[in-house]
């Protein structure tokens, strides 16, 4: 099957650049699957796993929002953070999840609920990608 080049970049540097047959990402408008020779596209991404498929292999990345651009058989994902499963610190993600849940359960007025909600989504995404 034909491949496309996938490049994932964050402010800390490149996370991955390799050839895959299919990229499946969750855009804000819904799930999108990209195969070779896809039409040009720019889409904002949700906080979710991006699946990279090659033959029988599938690898997941925990991508924290950002934007996906597709053109000339290349998929570029620019995000605030993106981690491979082996780079995820599971204990750190569990702590972040508990912190966010505590904030969301508290009745204190100064809590920034949207910020806590996004922190919870990032932590759940990491735990999902790390398979925990
Ligand atoms: P925390 O509250 O633990 O910092 P966070 O969701 O606020 O979590 P981010 O702002 O999304 O963290 O990320 C900041 C940097 O830390 C990024 O480079 C990201 O890749 C990294 N990072 C955050 N959490 C983890 C984790 N559990 N494992 C590995 N890297 C992480």
Automatic annotation (TrEMBL):
Domain ATP synthase F1 complex delta/epsilon subunit N-terminal: from-to ranges: 4-82
Source domain of life: Bacteria
Coiled-coil residues: 90-117
Annotated compartments: Cell membrane
A single MF term (Gene Ontology): ATP binding
InterPro entries linked to this entry: ATP_F1_dsu/esu_C_sf, ATP_synth_F1_dsu/esu, ATP_synth_F1_dsu/esu_N, ATP_synth_F1_esu_C, ATPsynth_dsu/esu_N
Family affiliation: Belongs to the ATPase epsilon chain family.
Assembly with partners or alone: F-type ATPases have 2 components, CF(1) - the catalytic core - and CF(0) - the membrane proton channel. CF(1) has five subunits: alpha(3), beta(3), gamma(1), delta(1), epsilon(1). CF(0) has three main subunits: a, b and c.
Function statement: Produces ATP from ADP in the presence of a proton gradient across the membrane.
Xref: HAMAP family: ATP_synth_epsil_bac (MF_00530)
Protein name: ATP synthase epsilon chain
């Amino acid at each position: 099957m034909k491949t496309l080049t996938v490049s994932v970049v964050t402010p800390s540097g490149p996370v991955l650049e390799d050839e895959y047959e299919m990229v499946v990402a969750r855009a804000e408008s819904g799930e999108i699957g990209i195969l070779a020779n896809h039409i040009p596209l720019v889409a904002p991404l949700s906080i979710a796993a991006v699946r990279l498929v090659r033959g029988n292999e599938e690898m997941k990345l925990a991508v924290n929002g950002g934007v996906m651009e597709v053109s000339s058989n290349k998929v570029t994902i620019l995000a605030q953070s993106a981690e491979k499963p082996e780079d995820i610190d599971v204990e750190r993600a569990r702590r972040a999840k508990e912190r966010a849940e505590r904030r969301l359960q508290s009745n204190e007025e100064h809590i920034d609920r949207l910020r806590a909600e996004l922190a919870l989504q990032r932590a759940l995404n990491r735990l999902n990608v790390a398979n925990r």
